[in-house]
Every structure is written in C-alpha cells, then in structure tokens.
Write a structure and sequence with these properties.
Distance between the termini: 91 Å
Number of helices: 7
Mean pLDDT: 78
Order of helices and strands: EEHEEEHHHHHH
Oligomer: single chain
Helix content: 40-55%
Low-confidence stretches: none
Strand order of the largest sheet: 3-4-5
Length: 236
C-alpha cells in the first residue's frame, strides 16, 4: 500500500493514495471479506470530512477547514441562560481557537469567523459582547487601536495559526498530566521498594551471636532427675 498520509482516530481512518482508485477499492473490498465481523464503509474523493475537519486536495496540496455536518443546527448555549458570564466568553473563544487551528488558509478562517459570529447572534449574543470577546482573543496579534476586532491580513493569521498549532488541546494536556502523575507515583513506589529491599538485606547481614554455637534442648520430669544425674550427666 502506497500512501502519502495516514491518520486514525479509533475506528475512523483518513489516508491519501497515489495509485489508481480501482486499486484502492480492491484493497478495501478484500478487507471487507477477510472477516465476517469487519465491515468498512469508505468514501473516495478530492474533498472529504474527517471528524470535524474538511480536507481538500488542491493540486496535490491538502487544505483544511472546519467541517459542519449538514444536519447540524446552529445552536450554542443561549445568551439568556443562567450561566456565569465567563462561560459565554469561553464558548466564543473556544470556537475562534478551533477555527484558527483547523483552518489552513486565511480565507477558510474568515469564512468560519463569519459563521461563528452569525451563530452567536442567532443565539441571542449581543454585538458588543461578541466584538469585545473577539478583541480580547485577538489582542496578541492586532493593535488595541484597531477598528476591526479580528485578524485582517494573512500575516496576522499565519502568526496566530502557528502559535496555536503548537499548543496541546485541553484533552491532550489532561492526558499528559495523568501520565506524568502515574509516572511520578510509580517512581515513588519503585524507590520505596528499593529502600525496603536494601533495609531487608542490611538487616539480614546483622551478626548472630548464636550462629557458631550448638544449642541442645532437653526436657525431663522431676522423677527422672536422679536417673539423669546418676547415669547420664557423667557421660556428657
């Protein structure tokens, strides 16, 4: 199998293919008949969704953008709901961060930014709140005196895209933290085990004062005491 790129998340797979489409279909059909419990469903094309990303092959170059399912409704937490104000702020910023990371071009990001703003307006968010949150999110890349509360050129987008692409997601950070915690705990247990073993070995090396002496135990009753003294004591 010859492919340029292969990605997998649980049972979802994405790959590029350099040979003919018929050759790829033959491999997939063979996989479907290899076991009765295996059933692969596949799509082949120049533009395909993978999870929440839309990947498009443009003359051999893969471009990415946010994928929205056709049946998805444009609903988020309504602005009139009884949530702390920072919750709404986080929802907007998370949507923008996702758009920046998943968009490979300034144009695809702008399309998603417009979709994000329309979605929040539809759910009752005010213009002033959205613009203020946008301004806060893009504050590191745009001037505080900028009239537009968003990125307005390719350079600003590229800088922020590269900066956010290198940052792990919240889920990745949580996984890494759990791994680090388990590693630390294991090292602590191993160290305790080594110390315990060393203590045991050192304890076993303690000199035994009776090690080279022969000890004989005997038990007798009073009525045999005379016989012992007369018959056996002199022979010891």
């Amino acid at each position: 199998m010859t492919c340029e790129y292969y990605g997998r998340y649980i049972d979802d797979v994405f790959m590029t293919w350099n040979k003919s489409e018929n050759a790829l279909k033959q491999i997939l059909e063979n996989a479907n008949t290899s076991h009765p419990n295996i059933k692969l469903e596949y799509k082949i094309g120049q533009s395909l969704p993978f999870l929440d990303i839309l990947l498009t092959n443009i003359n051999g170059t893969l471009s990415t953008s946010i994928y929205h399912k056709p049946a998805a409704e444009p609903y988020v937490v309504p602005f009139i709901s009884d949530h702390p104000r920072h919750v709404f702020d986080n929802i907007v910023q998370t949507s923008l961060r996702r758009a920046i990371k998943y968009s490979s071009s300034f144009q695809s990001f702008n399309d998603e930014r417009r979709f994000i703003k329309s979605t929040f307006l539809y759910n009752g968010y005010s213009f002033s709140f959205i613009d203020k949150t946008f301004q806060k999110f893009f504050s590191g890349c745009i001037s505080s005196r900028s009239f537009l509360p968003f990125l307005n050129n390719e350079k600003q987008f590229s800088e922020m895209h590269h900066a956010l692409s290198g940052q792990p997601s919240r889920q990745q950070s949580q996984v890494e933290m759990r791994i680090a915690t388990l590693t630390t705990d294991n090292e602590h247990l191993i160290k305790e085990s080594d110390n315990k073993q060393e203590f045991t070995i050192q304890g076993n090396k303690k000199q035994n004062e009776f090690q080279n002496k022969l000890i004989i135990h005997y038990t007798h009753e009073n009525r045999f005491d005379t016989s012992y003294n007369n018959e056996f004591k002199s022979s010891i």
